[in-house]
Structures are given as structure tokens and as C-alpha cells.
Design goal:
Strand content: over 45%
Number of helices: 2
Strand order of the largest sheet: 2-3-1-4
């Protein structure tokens, strides 16, 4: 399994409870693909560089996840289907040397 950073931009107009359900659903998708969420970090609401779906704000989350490489495409396609997710970015983290 490899380590990845998953940045999510969630619709800021979602109610807090609905937002939590949305994030839990994505965590369940990751675990169903034999992955795990190692760390989560909520950045809060930030202004977007350009409007997305006529919105100027987004609620940002940064997750550190571990996932098998073969599951990347499936994770991407499932995140794209989620209505509350405005944008996402999945980046492979570099392996840290123990030197």
C-alpha cells in the first residue's frame, strides 16, 4: 500500500450534519477498497481562486490515506459521483527515508 494525500473541497452550504455524513461516506469507500485513513486535518472555509458551481467559498479537508495502487481509479470515480464534493486532489506522498 502507498501513502497519499487527499484534499477535498466540500460545498460550504451543506449543513454540518450532512457534511459529516458525506465525509463518513468517503471514509467508508476508502476502507471498502482495503485502504485506511491515517490522519485528517480540517482547514475550514477558504475563498476559492475562482468560482466553482457559482460558489466563491469551499470547506477544505486534508487527509493522509493508505491505499493499494489498483484502487486509485475506483476511488476517483466514486468521489466524482458525490454531490457535496466540489473538487478533490489525490497526490502520492514520497516515501520517507529512514536515514
Amino acid at each position: 500500500m502507498r501513502s497519499y494525500e487527499l484534499t477535498l473541497v466540500v460545498d460550504p452550504d451543506l449543513a454540518s450534519e450532512k457534511q459529516k455524513r458525506q465525509l463518513e461516506k468517503i471514509k467508508k469507500i476508502i476502507t471498502s477498497l482495503k485502504g485506511e485513513v491515517k490522519r485528517t486535518n480540517e482547514w475550514g472555509k477558504k475563498e476559492l481562486a475562482y468560482p466553482i458551481k457559482k460558489k466563491n467559498l469551499g470547506h477544505y479537508f486534508l487527509w493522509e490515506i493508505k491505499l493499494p495502487e489498483k484502487s486509485l481509479n475506483e476511488l476517483s470515480s466514486k468521489i466524482k459521483m458525490e454531490e457535496g464534493i466540489m473538487r478533490y486532489l489525490l497526490v502520492k506522498m514520497e516515501e520517507r527515508s529512514s536515514a
